[in-house]
Automatic annotation (TrEMBL):
Gene3D superfamilies: Tetracycline Repressor, domain 2. One of its GO terms (molecular function) is transcription cis-regulatory region binding. This is TetR family transcriptional regulator. PANTHER family: HTH-TYPE TRANSCRIPTIONAL REGULATOR BETI, HTH-TYPE TRANSCRIPTIONAL REGULATOR RUTR. It comes from Mycobacterium cookii.
Length: 203
């Protein structure tokens, strides 16, 4: 594959996800995807790169999964020892992951049948591993005597669900919980999360 082919593939993937997100997977035609890339609608150029519209969606999903995993690995390499700062960076990474993948996640939420068979890969990359990792971290804090929670895994799931709720609501209905700003929401979450991890009252 020459660089031009790679560029065209990426343009097709980007255009397809944007259209799937805005007007729906089922309602988007191959011709519309090609036209959005500046290709002739009737040329069949998409089929030089993808055998079908579903194959295009599958590759777009895998591309995002790969990017999420790479970002998570970078997060692990630079994770600070300070509890509050580690929680802050985790919250920022979760929000960034949801916002960066918002177009694909809209398809996942609104037309789950479109990604049936490979939605588990996206779900695992976006959230499932985060639940496991947060649960392990809180279990470690509990075992060390810092946290006093009775059920670390459930408490970690609650913390993650609450921090992910804000960008998901904003993504799906363009509203924020309680009309609270992003900064206020994140800071309140940080105070509560730090209290759960350290056993100290929230400030």
């Amino acid at each position: 594959m020459n660089p031009g082919d790679g560029s065209t593939r990426d343009r097709l993937l980007d255009a397809a996800i944007a259209l799937f997100s805005s007007q729906g997977y089922a309602s988007t035609s191959i011709a519309e995807i090609q036209q959005a890339c500046g290709l002739s609608p009737g040329s069949g150029a998409l089929y030089k790169h993808f055998p079908s519209k579903n194959a295009l969606l599958r590759e777009a999903t895998q591309r995002q999964v790969d990017r999420i995993i790479a970002a998570r690995e970078e997060h692990d390499r630079t994770r600070p020892a300070d509890t509050r700062e580690a929680l802050r960076r985790a919250a920022e990474r979760i929000w960034d992951t949801i916002e960066t993948n918002s177009e694909l996640l809209r398809v996942m939420y609104r037309e789950p049948e479109a990604i049936e068979g490979f939605s588990a890969e996206l779900w695992s990359a976006v959230t499932a591993s985060a639940y496991d990792r947060m649960g392990a971290a809180l279990s470690g804090a509990t075992a060390a005597g810092a946290s006093q929670v009775e059920d670390p895994e459930a408490s970690a799931a609650l913390l993650l669900a609450s921090i992910a709720y804000f960008p998901i609501v904003r993504m799906l209905i363009e509203q924020t919980p309680g009309n609270i700003s992003a900064d206020r929401y994140r800071e309140a979450w940080l105070r509560l999360a730090e209290s759960v991890f350290t056993g100290r009252p929230p400030t």
